Structures
1.
Amino acid sequence: VDTPALGQLRIRARTSLGVSPDGTIQFIKAESQNPLQDAMDFDKSLKPWEISVIDTFQHQGFTFFFPGFIDTHVHASQYPNAGIFGSSTLLDWLETYTFPLEAGLKDIDHARKIYSRVLDKTLAHGTTTASYYTTIDANSSNLMADICAQRGQRAFIGKVCMDQNSPDYYIESLSDCQHSLQKVVNYIREELKDDKIKPIVTPRFAPTCSKELMTWLGKIAHDQDLHIQTHLSENKNELKWVKELFPECESYSDVYDSYNLLTNKTVLAHCIHLSDKEIDLIKERESGVSHCPISNSSITSGECEVRRLLDHGIKVGLGTDLSGGYDVSILATARQALLVSRHLAMKEVDAKKQEHLKLSVNDVLYLSSLGGAQVLAMDQQVGTFEVGKQFDTQLIDLESAGSRVDVFDWQYTKWTDEGRDIENTKLFEDLLAKWLFTGDDRNTVRVWVGGKQVFPGTK
Ligand code: GUN
Ligand code: FE
């Protein structure tokens, strides 16, 4: 099961899929009788003992493969604070909860514990690609890159850049920041050399970055061909502050654009309070938006008008935004995306527009997979099951041990009576809705990245 386009569900029953040792999907064969034979038909030189077969036919009940989730915005360093935000809003939340926590990760043993735990949790929840923010500290950011490589997750490592308007205990000078970012980029590219791990240029957000720093970041992103991630238009007080700091810029988006930080490999988190002109600019630059609905509801930042962004042809993916968001799960984030869209619909008076504003189950599952891949400019590589793409996958079992998902007998009969013919699309859409609304990590029973099993893993 995958979502090749917004709102579109593709179900391929009785299908076998072959993955080469480098993780690439080599064939997808419908109406398969014998996966082993399919592999030998594909490559005549293969001998049966050289082929491993992951066979859904052997899994009884409601099981299916779904592309691995893509978390386009997650602060790994903030994981210990998941759930802890009180009644704060962005700017006081940063001062009270976030900066003190992040500063503590300078202690490498402390960082190791937190980052290892983040990998345990994200992989167990089916996240196969994540775009991480670490902290300002280079050494522990490099450690995070090591841990991701060791655990087999596809990851962007964003050493956080901030050289102004930050507390004395958690700030770098311009030259220290330049030095430590280059250290992380060089470590990942020249020492670690794992093609699943990439550095990402991460100006925290405009208020904490000097004009000199942003100028330099825009330049090295261009010169060294790097992805970029930052926060944009999250909170009303933040907007006011940005206007004061950058009176020469037409809008918040224009601040980043002035420093060449809006590229087709830029991930912009939140984007809640954008003008039409800003939306046009983001579209023009081909930057992507990370929608973080759990965070936006929790620290009461606002409701992102995702349908408006999608209607303008902007790439949108989902972000947990730990720990503005409290949940490590992209499934839970997709559920919240659906609910927030309905809150926006409730405020719309025109009945037709109201219906259009509502994101469907298929829509939010698309955002969780291919949408996220587009935002990270990886849609040729992951996000759906296609020949030539990587096998980044979760095996979902709606009846796994402890599952909260209840599927009643009559529904089950419908499935089995038809010889497990799950091309009964309506039935399958119902099951996916059950997964989205009542499922959790207990339903994610196995996870692969690049064909390699990463969950359950060996520790
Ligand atoms: N804006 C600047 N820093 C942060 C952060 O850590 N989290 C969120 N949600 N917004 C931010
Ligand atoms: Fe964030």
2.
Amino acid sequence: TNDATSATNSTNSATSTTSSMPYARVTAVFESIEHESSRLKITALVADFFLHILNTSTPENLTKIVYLFINRLGPDYEPDLELGLGETLLIKAISECYGRPPAKIKKDYQKVGDLGLVAQNSRSGQPTMFKPVALDVDTVFDNLTKIAKSTGKDSQAKKIALIKKMLTACDLKSNEAKFLIRSLEGKLRIGLAEKTVLIGLAQAFVAYEGSSKVGKTIKTANTATAEEVVREAFSQVPNYEIIIKHAYAHGIFNLLDHCQLTPGIPLKPMLAKPTKSISEVLDRFQGEEFTCEYKYDGERAQVHMLSDGLVRIYSRNSEDMSQRYPDLISIAKDFLKKQEGADNNVSSMILDCEAVAWDRVNKKILPFQVLSTRKRKGVDEKDITVHICLFAFDLLYLDNVSLITKSLKERRQVMTENLIPIEGKFQFATAKNSSNLDELQQFLDQSVKDACEGLMVKMLNGNESYYEPSKRSRNWLKLKKDYLAGVGDSLDLVVIGAYIGKGKRTGSYGGFLLASYNSDTGEYETTCKIGTGFSDEDLVQIHAKLHPTEISQPKPYFVYDTTNSNAKPDVWFEPSMIFEVLTADLSLSPIYKAGHQQYGKGISLRFPRFLRIRDDKGIEDGTNSEQVAEFYERQANIN
Ligand code: ATP
């Protein structure tokens, strides 16, 4: 029954049953979601619509529609698929399309606060000489991709031409222009987060299979399992095209048989929960065998070896870093030669590591700050001065076999038996198995002396020690020496505004407004103002990076106190940068907003101090509002 006919393009859409869908159908659903506040109802709207696509169209079309819903154009690991166009360019396109001066558009924008609406309103009243062909999903998707990929000196003009073409085709009576502009800006702001899209997808498949195969109502328990399956599949293979294709062909409940780790597709890394003390660690792992490893302070590197011998390195954020680390590719090629006497070389592999700056003369680890001075683009191996040592802590896949459902003890054994350490280039993470408090304290102190951040404590045996892609798991705890006095960890927060510098800081920003991402609502909720911990160079560098991202209005998805001037910055930014910050503690605040739905008031950081820019994290991967609330709850003395 599953007709897997491939998607047809827009040229024959009029006749084919698998035709591309009118874009207006998609924006109508966006509109309904925008006006809905109940999460359950939003999920149902998403699921119903996806079910409709499954019933009437192809998996290819469903994939494109899912991407439009999450405002992306392909998997995270594929480069150059980002939208997020600046307001100046969009104002120019809207102005040229409707023949209204940019100043007028800008003024409307200041009034309305939403360029999408401004575009839609500019549209009305325009005389239409002829009725343009309606926009369909294929055309919009293809054009958005062209816009994202367009670079070089004519790219601005090309982008504007494509935007104008699409705006002209928007139906006068629909809201297409509004959502098209918002998509181009990089955020739909309809209160829909990716989490909900995944759940909606699972529900749609359950209903689709229920109606097409057995014709019975599907039980909730089934739906919950399907959600778990889709989430798990996505954390191993973060690619909607592959997931939808397999769910369609084999059924949602068989998805995990078909979506497994694949060298060349970076999986979402497993993450750790913070802890504040060794005794907290001992409480957690009471009676279980656990292991401690150095927590190296560098950059996470997922090393893949594909079956054709190609080596690829991916960041924590699934970005391909192979060009940035040509030296690591050479190192990997060396250690991938198996031990002497072994039958054959490694044929395929996924290895989880931390890449750390290494002093080749004194044979020791260098601090993260040194690593961060490495060039990010156009790196030529022979010009490299900051060398890297790769510290491997987990092996997830070897010779066509996924190891993630083996115990950590077994994974380690396979790792050490198959790969050969090379001093100063490729080493295994220093580890110690002990549950003695004094020994652990010594090991923690030693890790810091050896230029590490502290320890990672991990469950060693049984299914609790399986590798859990994308999960922040309590089977991995991080114990950071420097942060034990505060909340136990640093926070990674998004910079959404700044205060103009005075005195010594004239000419740059003097302080910043930070926010946490709310992964349920897609909003950014303010957490604090920060002005401490910056060196003069930091401020110069940050100003240079953030100045071009200034926007004339706060985004409608910024949640901040409009009445208190302290909580309202002088300039706002398009979210693009994450600061890692320390705090003395967290408290409820009348003017900040993180977690405000839960507590009435928001949670804010007291005495925040800047540590560094986190450019290995995506803007939605920082400490989210839910985690801020967790930190707050975990503080010993809440009153
Ligand atoms: P952090 O701010 O602590 O780096 P994070 O959100 O990037 O936070 P966490 O899960 O909190 O990630 O901490 C784990 C990170 O520590 C990993 O992403 C990895 O880059 C690094 N790391 C260093 N040594 C190890 C190790 N032995 N095992 C696992 N991760 C390690």
3.
Amino acid sequence: MQLVLLGPPGAGKGTVATAVAIRTGIRHISTGDLFRAAVKEQSPLGRRVAALLQAGSLVPDSLTIALVREHLATMPRGVGFILDGFPRTVPQAEALAGFADIEAAVELVVPEQEVVRRLSGRRTCSACGATFNVASMPANAARFCSPVQREDDDPQAIRRRLDAYRAQTTPVVDYYRTTGLLRPIDGTATPSEVADRLRTVVSG
Ligand code: AP5
């Protein structure tokens, strides 16, 4: 199964894709994670995109498309994947159609007020990478993890990311609706319920 996962910042894409990947063996590919890793390594790509990520602005299509195409080319043939955070523009969606055989585009539908609440409370462990929310952080995470706030989770960057979603990614939702691949899912249930719904799509 080759799947695209759409939804505004904070909709829970990373949370549910991680859970489904663990349960099914399908690969979870997050362009945000790939860019953050490049920034951390201070690679040439990381140096080019660091300021864009921090501000909550999209990375240019040419760089993003090349990154995903190269990443998919390194995967063994026949392995399924969930693309989280790609495509985010119509040119990215059109390019993807040329090098992958996308079977479904799942849209996590979550109201804007709720995603702002989730992003403001999100913390990521700087050691193990686990994602939490201050509203629901388990007691053992508070003991064993070193939770930090993502740089682009400050109010100004959150606003810019939501603006980018409305202007540039909503047309991608329409693109997949037109091609008949769109599968909207209510993303307001608990993470495990949303993951179950995504797993149903993955298992066809
Ligand atoms: P990226 O990392 O993709 O950020 P995003 O799309 O803004 O998504 P997030 O990671 O913020 O949210 P999420 O939906 O994964 O939610 P999460 O599961 O963490 O991209 C970052 C940047 O990289 C972009 O701004 C851009 O600069 C660049 N970039 C990436 N891809 C690009 C592309 N294709 N083109 C150009 N530039 C690109 O959950 C959020 C919080 O909610 C957590 O605290 C979680 O615990 C909680 N939560 C999750 N699910 C639930 C639930 N069901 N109920 C209650 N709480 C929940």
4.
Amino acid sequence: MDHPSPHVLLFPLPIQSPINSMLHLAELFCLAGLQVTFLNTNHNQKLLLRHTNVESRFRQYPRFRFRTISDGLPEENPRSSVQFGELISSLQAVAEPFLREILLSSSSDGVTEPPVTCVIPDGLFYYAVDIGNEIGVPVIPFDTISPCCLWVYLCIPKLIQAEEIPFKGNDLDALFENVAGMQGLLRRRDFPFYRLIDYATDPYCQIALKEVESIPRSNGLILNTFEDLDGPLLSLIRSHCQQTYAIGPLHLHLKTKLAEKRMPISASSNSLWEEDHSSIQWLDAQPIESVIYVSFGSMATLSKEEILEFWHGLVNSGIRFLWVMRSNLLRGEESNHQFVKELSEGCKERAYIVSWAPQEKVLAHSAIGGFLTHSGWNSTMESIVQGKPMICWAVYVDQRVTSRFVGEVWKIGVDMKDICDRYIIEKMVKDLMVTNRDEFKKSAEKLSNLAKESVGDGGSSYNALQCLVDDVKKLGR
Ligand code: UDP
């Protein structure tokens, strides 16, 4: 029997950052000549097609297809962070039978395409590993969270056994003893599931546990990082999954490969919201490294009090800022339109507000000197690539561990962690942008150079991607 031609099914978590990362990976696979199917939810596919040129961009790859499924939620559901748990379980109910069907059929679309030979689901879709094993199709999860958080997840069973979780007492500065590689570093307040009361009833902790249990049963693990950033943690993660491919930073990797092949690096966007390019025009009129970019990603929300503390801290610092105020940034409110309008009236000459920005371009702009971020993993990687120091306001999950690493391990910024106060914000902004600017800039630029080396010819991520593509080609049925 002929060996089937390699055909990868990519299945991202139905939110902005994993969609970004998986589309980058999809394009890298297309460049390597693989057949690729990208499984998106109907809801996100509609948004993606409305706000991006993704359809025409991928048209140049004849072996690429989008496929869509329902996420199981009614159209009017806002799918914000509050409904995240609901979204994950309703999607699971639709995805499980879909995956079984597509993996059992002899062609992926029932007519023309070769069968799927490898599934790359988000790491959170632990059930895909079992379905693949049951049917005999290899599964290589892509964990789109930060590797430092993934390592904490992998240590959860040990923490439970050592009775370090659930936490006893209220001291959030107490250090964990049973997270190898993070002794003396990881405090309770840095734990992904903040103030964890009971791991057995916390739904997100339960999903994380199922995810880590599935890792040794998978055929490998993909991470969006590079050896010079996360080498020691990657060694620890490899004790659970030997075949761990560190192929990041993915967005830079893709740009580098396109340049290598002399293909146009189009103004590619994978945004589910409309990007406001007036932010770039505003930046064009600002002096070099004079602006701090403020964004809390696609899901995190802030209370009205927190937004006001950030606003006053930024205004009082005297530093110019560009702030992404998503329409659903204000916690518990449908829209923050009026509130944002009133705020922006107060500081027109030094502040600019948009509801969604072309973030990669913003961070690459010479007027940007720093990033006030929620420490989402994509934002962190994008900032590292551009050598921009960060102030971290982590909200939940991997952001809490990542922000600790930004401040204490990589030393490319400061971690606010839990105290949202205008005086602290003012001081940190001045510290990052003026007082200790040279020091932060030096360490951020050093990491940026290492990131670039990693995806260049012969670099660690370059080699790991080659190895992943070769392995995917070998994996048949
Ligand atoms: N992003 C963007 N424009 C914005 C805000 C965010 O394009 O105004 C992108 C950003 O470049 C990143 C992603 O959205 O790739 C956010 O991912 P991250 O992991 O940082 O945070 P999450 O949204 O998952 O919390």
